[in-house]
């Protein structure tokens, strides 16, 4: 017996189509009741992974387990899963009620029980009262709500959602994000959610799986993925960043000192080395990354912070409503700084001091 039950286990899955390796050794565990997100750029293998779990895609090597049962050779319809896709998958000639009834009738659920479950599912997605509408009489968001209700009404072992919010406008997308998160916890159904949108993944998930070219780059909670990316790919994919280059001048177990190509030195915490072997020795050429919101900015005449403080000049100021995006020229480069406010009087040409904490900078060998 395992301490923590896994509802899904994927072991060494490999899939090739023609000359393309689509899944290149996928190992993955989905815990009972969690909302796990597959995140990555278009074409990285998210849908293929979901299809392997659902049983829509045969694999060349490896095994798939659902609730401890090996299902590698079990057909899709026997896996008991609920799926929602990016494009509306409702039956257009059936009402909302009939769409939900369909799967229950196939499973020969008794009439009263069907009615009860359909009402409950519609309540869950806030669609009560719209039972008699046809899909064409619903908005995009409402259709996706019905699609989710239809997936849930059969009480699936797993809920699989493939970019269900991609076709919706920004406001609706935000709203439905929160809704899906809420109802997933309410129902408690183990869920795998696919998206290419990092913000969506960060805001919704218990854990995120970052994929790239048919491989898994990192698995972790949203904060682990954002604050402690293990690879350069994860760091760059998950948010905005500034980049510097240099050579390692000295290091101990806690800190790495880098001599920048443009002159000047910076300190980086030794824990923040990324890359597969996480090696970083004196003399190595390295790339350094820091997120815009991790840079502090202050008037040049103020006392400088202890580490990593550099003179900079404002070259661009963009007001974003909730924040200021300040572009500075510094260390011979342009860097983006994101702050909630700026000092009055700052303008293009103002001399400032930009600094950051060594724990916020990531480093990787070139
Ligand atoms: N039926 C297919 N035939 C050939 N190539 C495919 C097929 N399905 C997917 N692919 C390729 O497999 C890769 C992964 O696709 P997919 O899993 O759909 O990616 P994602 O969902 O992350 O965008 C892509 O390069 C895609 O072109
Ligand atoms: Mg896809």
Automatic annotation (TrEMBL):
Q: Show the Pfam families listed in the entry.
A: ABC_tran (PF00005), TOBE_2 (PF08402)
In terms of SMART domains, this protein maps to: AAA
Q: What catalytic activity is recorded?
A: ATP + H2O + polyamine-[polyamine-binding protein]Side 1 = ADP + phosphate + polyamineSide 2 + [polyamine-binding protein]Side 1
Task: Show where the ABC transporter domain sits.
Answer: 8-238
**Protein name (Swiss-Prot/TrEMBL):** Spermidine/putrescine import ATP-binding protein PotA
Cellular compartments per GO CC: ATP-binding cassette (ABC) transporter complex
Q: Which UniProt keywords apply?
A: ATP-binding, Cell membrane, Membrane, Nucleotide-binding, Translocase, Transport
Give the EC number(s) under which this enzyme is classified.
7.6.2.11
UniProt cross-references to SUPFAM superfamilies, sorted A to Z: MOP-like, P-loop containing nucleoside triphosphate hydrolases
How it assembles, according to the record, is: The complex is composed of two ATP-binding proteins (PotA), two transmembrane proteins (PotB and PotC) and a solute-binding protein (PotD).
Q: Provide the species name.
A: Parageobacillus thermantarcticus
GO MF term set: ABC-type polyamine transporter activity; ATP binding; ATP hydrolysis activity
Q: What does this protein do?
A: Part of the ABC transporter complex PotABCD involved in spermidine/putrescine import. Responsible for energy coupling to the transport system.
The entry sums up its family as follows:
Belongs to the ABC transporter superfamily. Spermidine/putrescine importer (TC 3.A.1.11.1) family.
Q: Record's Gene3D superfamilies?
A: 2.40.50.100, P-loop containing nucleotide triphosphate hydrolases (3.40.50.300)
């Amino acid at each position: 017996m395992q301490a923590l039950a896994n509802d899904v286990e994927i072991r060494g899955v490999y899939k090739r189509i023609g000359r393309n390796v689509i899944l290149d050794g996928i190992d993955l565990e989905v815990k009972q009741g969690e909302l796990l997100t597959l995140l990555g750029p278009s074409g990285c293998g998210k849908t293929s992974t979901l299809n392997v779990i659902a049983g829509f895609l045969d694999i060349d090597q490896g095994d798939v387990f659902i609730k401890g049962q090996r299902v590698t050779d079990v057909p899709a319809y026997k896996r008991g899963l609920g799926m929602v896709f990016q494009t509306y998958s409702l039956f257009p000639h059936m009402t909302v009620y009939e769409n939900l009834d369909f799967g229950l009738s196939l499973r020969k659920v008794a009439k009263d029980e069907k009615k009860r479950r359909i009402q409950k599912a519609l309540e869950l997605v806030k669609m009560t009262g719209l039972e008699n509408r046809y899909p064409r009489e619903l908005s995009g968001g409402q259709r996706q709500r019905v699609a989710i209700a239809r997936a849930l009404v059969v009480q699936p072992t797993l809920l699989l959602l493939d970019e269900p919010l991609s076709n919706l406008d920004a406001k609706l997308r935000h709203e439905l994000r929160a809704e899906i998160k809420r109802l997933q916890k309410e129902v408690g159904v183990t869920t795998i959610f696919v998206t290419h949108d990092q913000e969506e993944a960060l805001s919704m998930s218990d854990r995120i799986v970052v994929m790239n070219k048919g491989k898994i780059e990192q698995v972790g909670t949203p904060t682990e993925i954002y604050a402690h990316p293990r690879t350069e790919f994860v760091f760059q994919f998950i948010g905005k960043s500034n980049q510097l280059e240099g050579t390692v001048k000295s290091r101990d177990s806690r800190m790495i000192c880098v001599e920048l190509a443009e002159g000047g030195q910076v300190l980086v915490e030794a824990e923040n080395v990324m890359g597969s072997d996480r090696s970083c020795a004196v003399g190595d050429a390295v790339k350094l990354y820091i997120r815009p919101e991790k840079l502090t900015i202050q008037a040049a005449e103020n006392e400088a912070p202890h580490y990593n403080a550099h003179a900079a000049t404002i070259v661009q100021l963009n007001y974003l409503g909730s924040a200021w995006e300040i572009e500075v020229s510094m260390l011979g480069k342009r860097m983006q700084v994101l702050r909630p406010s700026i000092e009055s009087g700052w303008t293009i040409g103002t001399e400032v001091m930009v600094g950051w904490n060594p724990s916020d900078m990531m480093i990787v060998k070139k």
